[in-house]
Amino acid sequence: MFRVEHPEYLWLLVLVPLVAGLFLWYWRQRRAALDRFADRELLDYLAPGVNRRLPWTKFGLLLASLPLLILALANPQWSAQREEMKRRGIDLIVALDISNSMLAEDVKPSRMDRARFFTTTLIDELAGNNIGVELFTCTAVMSAPLTTDYNFVKSVVSTAAPYQISAQGTNLGEAITVAEAAFDEKSANHRALIIVSDGEDHDGAAAAAAARANAQGLLIYTVGVGKSGASMMPIQLNNGRQDYIRASGGGPAMTSADQATLEDIATSGGGAYFALSGDSENLAQALRAQVDRIEKQEFETQSFSSYDSYFYWFLAPAVLLLLVEFGLGWRAGE
User: Fold this and answer.
1) Cα separations (Å) of 168 from 101, 118, 139, 195, 196?
2) What percent of the chain is predicted at pLDDT more than 90?
């Protein structure tokens, strides 16, 4: 199969007739100026040894080299062979907590910022698998379906924030149930769920939901962000002033990370708990080591053709023509 790697450069071929036209215009102007200066027969005496045909020869060489250079730049290619690549991996969903409690700044710059940065790092580390993203508060939404478009997945993570789901509170059990429903039935025993949260749970049924999902072949890992102990949740008001999430009594509401809940979910889900307290890259690698233990499934077979480039078929004669042109003088005998 033939193709041109950079077809956009073929538009430069319009330069060939333009350059030819400009040269003809220049030559006529030059000829007219010489005719005004002296008779053509007299010019042979005034400029002895000048080869009148040589400029046309040199220009012809330059003009012939121009399309060859353009074709070399476009790089014609021919398919050498068709290859098939089989991709193996698992289906994996990252559930990211975007409840108001993630606004707490007990870890810097905030729980939400730390969770977003870690999740982006994790997606890069787990490339090769089908990855989806679920955002949750007291309800859960699959914001990125299982895909290999990792740039899209990371864009969903980078903009994740509490305002995206108006109903607030945290229901980890709901997050597990929604994620479980998003998996393909064929991926049983080849799937994992990674929950990134501060662990606050207003329902209390998350461990039971994790156990049920694990019985259906889902492994659940949890990543805890935040510290135990009361922390306020700052918000930015429309007038630019900073305030805090308020409790029903009017005072600032308080939040505390709950490591124990996340540990229970991971244990019931057959996975492991990790604390997001150190380097994100090292933690992502640790999670990758856990995920790599899961039996891989074979995804679709991708076929592609490898191409050999033949730009040198055009570049070599173009360079030769230019060398010949450069070697020609302007006077007879040069």
Assistant:
1) 9, 23, 8, 17, 17
2) 52
Q: Name the residue with tokens 């990252």.
A: 94
pTM over 0.85: no
pLDDT in tens, 45-65: 555 555 567 778 888 888 999
pLDDT tens digit sequence for 74-116: 999 887 666 666 778 899 999 999 999 999 998 999 999 999 9
Residue-range domains of the chain with CATH: 2-80+307-327 (no CATH), 86-300 (3.40.50.410)
Residue 191 and residue 90 in contact, taking contact as beta carbons nearer than 8 Å: yes
323 class by beta-carbon count within 10 Å (0-12 exposed, 13-18 middle, 19+ buried): exposed
Pairing of strands 140-147, 130-136: antiparallel
Alpha-carbon distance 97 to 200, whole Å? 10
Q: How far is CA 297 from CA 134, 142, 267, 289, 329, in A?
A: 22, 22, 24, 17, 70
CA–CA distance, 112 with 101 (Å, rounded to integer): 9
User: CB burial class (10 A; 0-12, 13-18, 19+) of residue 194?
Assistant: buried
Q: 328, 217, 205, 316: which is closest to 271 by C-alpha?
A: 217
Secondary structure percentages of the chain, helix, strand, coil, to 5: 45, 25, 30
CA separation for the pair 216, 269 (Å, rounded):
10
Token digits of residue 302: 């991708």
Residue type, position 141, single letter:
V
pLDDT tens profile 241-292: 888 888 777 788 888 999 999 999 999 999 999 999 878 899 999 999 999 9
Helix pair 259-268, 206-215: axis angle to 10 deg: 20
User: Token pair 């070697």 is at which residue?
Assistant: 327
The span from the CA of 113 to the CA of 66, in Å, is 55
User: With 0-12 CB in 10 A as exposed, 13-18 as middle and 19+ as buried, what is 286?
Assistant: middle
Question: And the tokens for 178?
Answer: 């929604």
